[in-house]
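FORM 12-B: Structure-to-Sequence Request
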């Protein structure tokens, strides 16, 4: 098959999508099997599998157990994506985060339908394998499992993380890594290592509200940079902002960003790193969703594309293994490593030893990789299902992002809808959403919301979406 730009699996997927749009395949039709597809397009079986995952994430096809791939019932056309953001052009303190605590409390209420917090339902997680791994670690390392595993953390876990990062293209020595209580602490330690109160931090807009809370707690100011829902942060806009304001750090989620879901191209990642290097500004890279690409490919990290750059890489297993583990890490580079290790120690002494050892055992066993392959497909189905439901229920003019990884979507509603008000009314009816203003330091995106798709889908969930849509009318 002739290469026309883009990944080969995308070309195959797009060709099949075109055939579906042209009516060559109708809703309910069974599509060729993986081997037949690979022969038809003269591509590998792996490429054929990735093409079907791409089509599934785009909402064109659905997998039926032990039966194959079928064309889904679709609307006449997909709604448009939200446009690039246009945030304010000056740094600002973070405001309006009071709603977040209500969201987080709702996440623990079994009577509330959870669309708000980006927390996967246990049905997606390797619960049984994880339980066995932790129990085995507790038995085999009894004394150590109950003691302090002081920073930088258990060497067994750091070796496994370093191997995984190397396989993804980022060569990091285990001694460079510091184990943290989730990615949130990793980002916090990284910011504390390179900034002081009053400093300006450049962020995507919209950005994860947890980052805004960290910026606020450290006495920093956020500088929101225009961000495209498909391509990521605008490097040109960041360049102009850095010429005007004394930016001391930049925080980016380049792979399947929360809340927009984009994955930056390698070229865009390199341009970002080069720009920050020219200005001597460290990059804090949050890669917590990097393992969750629907096509099975692991996108490269900025850390791997520019190993000599000043990059503090942060990640965790919260979205892939279990959020309650709170096992994350930071690879801050040797320049910042000692400072980050010290800050970790004075913050909370250590991350629980038994959990570190249990995660290390699960990684070494190979079971985690098998789980990841299944999880990616499940998340792809969950996102396609949610997009389809939003299209069916929500008012005309609604725009939806098309993430190719992760499990959240960004929904832009008609201008007259106030999602801050909607969130309060919905919570009173047992439905949790994340309103757009909490993703902005200046409370922008009043008519937007983020929905988590990693919920256990049933009639109750679908009814909640229909109710939410009716409240938007």
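FORM 12-B RESPONSE
SEQUENCE OUT:
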């Amino acid at each position: 098959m002739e290469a026309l730009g883009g990944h080969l699996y995308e070309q195959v997927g797009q060709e099949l999508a075109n055939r579906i749009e042209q009516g060559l395949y109708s809703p309910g039709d069974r599509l060729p099997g993986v081997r037949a597809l690979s022969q038809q397009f003269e591509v590998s079986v792996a490429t054929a599998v990735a093409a079907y995952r791409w089509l599934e994430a785009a909402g064109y096809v659905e997998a039926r157990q032990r039966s194959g791939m079928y064309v889904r019932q679709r609307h006449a056309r997909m709604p448009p994506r939200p446009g690039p953001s246009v945030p304010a052009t000056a740094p600002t303190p973070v405001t309006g985060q009071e709603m977040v605590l209500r969201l987080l409390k709702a996440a623990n209420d079994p009577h509330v339908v959870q669309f708000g917090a980006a927390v996967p339902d246990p049905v997606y997680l390797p619960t049984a394998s994880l339980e066995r791994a932790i129990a085995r670690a507790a038995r085999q390392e009894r004394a150590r499992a109950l003691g302090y595993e002081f920073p930088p953390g258990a060497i067994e876990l750091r070796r496994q993380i370093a191997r995984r990062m190397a396989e993804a293209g980022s060569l990091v020595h285990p001694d460079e890594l510091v184990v943290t209580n989730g990615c949130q602490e990793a980002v916090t330690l990284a910011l504390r290592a390179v900034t002081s109160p009053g400093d300006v931090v450049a962020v995507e807009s919209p950005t994860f509200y947890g980052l805004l809370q960290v910026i606020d707690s450290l006495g920093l100011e956020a500088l929101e940079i225009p961000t495209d829902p498909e391509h990521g942060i605008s490097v040109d806009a960041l360049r102009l902002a850095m010429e005007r304001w004394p930016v001391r750090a930049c925080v980016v989620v380049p792979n399947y960003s929360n809340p927009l879901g984009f994955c930056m191209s390698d070229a865009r990642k390199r341009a970002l790193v080069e720009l920050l290097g020219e200005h001597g500004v460290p990059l804090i890279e949050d890669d917590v969703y990097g393992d969750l690409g629907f096509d099975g490919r692991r996108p490269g990290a900025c850390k791997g594309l520019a190993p000599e750059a000043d990059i503090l890489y942060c990640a965790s297993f919260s979205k892939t293994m279990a959020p309650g583990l709170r096992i994350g890490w930071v690879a801050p580079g040797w320049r910042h490593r000692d400072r980050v290790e010290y800050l970790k120690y004075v913050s909370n002494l250590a991350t629980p030893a038994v959990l570190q050892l249990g995660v290390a055992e699960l990684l070494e066993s190979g079971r985690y990789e098998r789980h990841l392959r299944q999880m990616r497909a499940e998340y792809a189905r969950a996102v396609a299902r949610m997009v389809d439901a939003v299209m069916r229920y929500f008012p005309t003019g609604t725009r939806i992002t098309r993430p190719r990884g992760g499990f959240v979507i960004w929904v832009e509603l008609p201008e007259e809808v106030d999602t801050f008000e909607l969130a309060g009314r919905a919570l009173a009816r047992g439905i949790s959403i994340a309103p757009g203003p909490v993703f902005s330091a200046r409370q922008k995106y009043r008519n937007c919301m983020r929905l988590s798709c990693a919920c256990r889908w049933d009639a109750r969930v679908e009814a909640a979406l229909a109710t939410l849509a009716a409240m938007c009318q």
